[in-house]
Amino acid sequence: MRNSLADVVAAALRVLDAQGLENCSMRRVAAELEVQPSALYHHVPNKQSLLALMADEIVRGVGVAQARAGATTPEAAAAAARQLCVELRAAMLAVRDGADVVATAAAFRLGRSRVEERLAGLVGGDGARTLLLFTFGHAQSTQTHRQAAALGALVDPDLADPELGNEELSDAERSVPGTEAGLDLDASFGRGLDLILAGLAQLPDPRAH
């Protein structure tokens, strides 16, 4: 049975999750579907187009509830914007290298995602761009941190034995609050959002124009 465009995107996301963005090639996606690479070009003209579709699928549904609910006050708009960014980060972190895929698509204006539009409706264009850049950057940093932790590559020089050099931390050391490996990245993301939104609250309400 011939594969659909949705099948191609789903296969690409499986390859991405299993092998990472660097190894997510058209050839590997075709192998996942057990077809020749040329068969993919019936659906997408190139890898860039496929990347855009993957990004759209990763963030599908993000911000929909906020857009439907609306926001009648600046406080409600800020709360909705915060929740949208939390959802966006969670969606990107749910897929290996998802933050890189979505951030790249956004940077090159690829795909049809309306996340930025929905966010702009809450905090204005400049506010939306600032929140998106922070969310993308934090998600990418979090994914890098998680991948390093999975490989046992996180080292805190304050805890490593100076006579041995920066050796890998033990399981007990990894759990110590305040170490790089033990940072609460979710909490730091929330604090960052609150700082940005507090700054935006000092500006005129962009929805008033």
Automatic annotation (TrEMBL):
Keywords: DNA-binding, Transcription, Transcription regulation. InterPro entries: Homeodomain-like_sf, HTH-type_TetR-like_transc_reg, HTH_TetR, Tet_transcr_reg_TetR, Tet_transcr_reg_TetR-rel_C_sf. Residues 2-62 form the HTH tetR-type domain. It comes from the Bacteria. SUPFAM superfamilies: Homeodomain-like (SSF46689), Tetracyclin repressor-like, C-terminal domain (SSF48498). PROSITE patterns: HTH_TETR_2. Residues 25-44 bind DNA. This is TetR/AcrR family transcriptional regulator.
